[in-house]
Amino acid sequence: MDRGLSFEEDFPYIICHLPLLFAVSSLCCNSRSAHQPGGLADSSRWLKRSENHRNKSEKSCTPKGCEDLKDILQLPSHLAPRRGANISTAVTDGLRFASTTGYYLTTLRVAGSALRTPLVRLNAPDAPAEIYLKLENLQPIGSFKIRGATNAMGHLTPETLSRGVLTASAGNMAQGVAWRARELGVPCTVVAPETAPDTKIKAIERLGGRVIKVPFEEWWRAFETRSFPGVEATFIHAFDDLNVMAGNGTIALEIIEDCPEVDAVVVPWGGGGLTCGIAAAMRALNSKCKIYAAEVATAAPLVASLAAGTPQVVEYQPSFVDGIGSKIVFPQMLERAQRLIAGSLVAELDEVKSAIRLMAERNRIIAEGAGACALACALAGKASGGRVVCIVSGGNIDFQRLCEILAEH
After folding, report:
1. Are residues 284 and 385 in the same domain?
2. pLDDT score recorded for residue 109
3. d(C-alpha 36, C-alpha 409), whole Å
């Protein structure tokens, strides 16, 4: 990936135009179900809202308004990849948005692969909050990762793509990259940890991806170096990438459209790309809601790092919650989290299992461990009351493991 990006100057410019993105995203992503609410049958409603969003954006998201967002999003100089041009004249080269029209075209590119997922009420009237589930497990690959992967790869040149793509992933990002690589007809290589579940590995291979399984330390090193020995391809980072975070941020737009009065959003924290993408978009839309990360107790470096103020190494214990968790947080992702989120909530493994069972029993929803972590935190009352949206980030769980969890009491 191009490292000539500046988070503190490029990303504020990107997200201040996000209201424009959603109207087109809603139209395109619902085109397959035109008779459903929100589909093409309601195009006049979306276009009217688009115009309203545009008028508001022109008043509140001028270049000066974008510049003010630096206080929220900027990274210190030793963490920022590059200092770019002044925000008043800069147009992000990372996403190549030369104009509003360019932004629409980028939105169309993402919408061609990703779906606009539903937001549904959890059927649990005795819950400590009014809980809603954002069903990213219904994406074509079974997780939200298709958003960021499509957005990132959509801005690579044909020459760059011809060399193939490489990613490091426990399964979900790999499926997103492999899905898009198959659509583009380019080779895809995936570095996966030895603990990655067979369900995800087989899904990657069905999509045409080549999987290289390695020990956890070697897998994590691929994130840090953005490469893998012997593989000459463009690395698509699963979380520390502006294009990926911008793609993930479209989830926030859908939440605001469906639940404008949301009080809190709880997001599974793996590397931070999903959480920071959603949080940045919420801030750009002037939403008052709080954003919480959700971790599992057996691998929770963020909560320790936030408490210490610096990246902390924690003990990592592999579990069925394989889509999130690590030993440490990237310094730049910690910096973003410190500025963007209200804190990190931690769920025990048994709480995650209970959340999986509850979603299956009450809403007939299948979620993987990482996808149930946010709900586990909300059910424990850790996100306080009010309207709470939990991101069900994925549903790629081994069938045997799911049966075992459902059978437990």
Report:
1. yes
2. 59
3. 38
Q: Is the pLDDT of residue 37 over 60?
A: no
CB burial class (10 A; 0-12, 13-18, 19+) of residue 51?
exposed
Is residue 295 in a domain? Answer: yes
The token pair that represents 64 in the structure block: 């000066």
User: 158: domain range?
Assistant: 145-235
- Let me know how long the chain is: 409
Label each residue of 198-254 as H, E or C. Answer: HHHHHHHHHCCCEEEEECHHHHHHHHHHCCECCECCEECCCCCCHHHHHHHHHHHHH
Please check whether residues 218 and 367 belong to one and the same domain: no
Give yes or no: residues 273 and 353 share one domain: yes
Q: State the average pLDDT over residues 12-37.
A: 41
Average pLDDT, the chain: 79
Q: What is the pTM of this model?
A: 0.77
Q: Convert the pLDDT of each residue in 82-92 to its tens digit.
A: 333 222 222 22
Helix (H, G, I), strand (E, B) or coil at 388: strand
Read off the pLDDT of each residue in 97-108 and give the average, rounded to a whole number: 39
Is the pLDDT higher at 376 or at 56?
Answer: 376
Full DSSP string of 311-322: ---------S--
Tell me the sheet residues that pair with 391: 134
Contact 186, 178 (CB under 8 A): no
Whether 335 and 247 share a structural domain: yes
SS3 362: helix
DSSP 97: -
> How many C-beta neighbours within 10 Å does residue 3 have?
9
Considering Cα of 403, then 115, then 208, then 224, what sign does the dihedral take?
Answer: negative
Dihedral over Cα of 238, 241, 243, 247: its sign: positive
Task: Report which DSSP code applies to 299.
Answer: B
Residues 135 and 32 in one domain: no
* CA dihedral of 118, 123, 129, 133, whole degrees rounded to 10: -20
**Is the same domain home to 23 and 84?**
yes
| Angle of the 145-153 helix axis to the 100-111 helix axis, nearest 10 | 130
Q: Which helix (H) or strand (E) holds 70?
A: helix 70-73
pLDDT > 70: what percent of the chain? Answer: 73
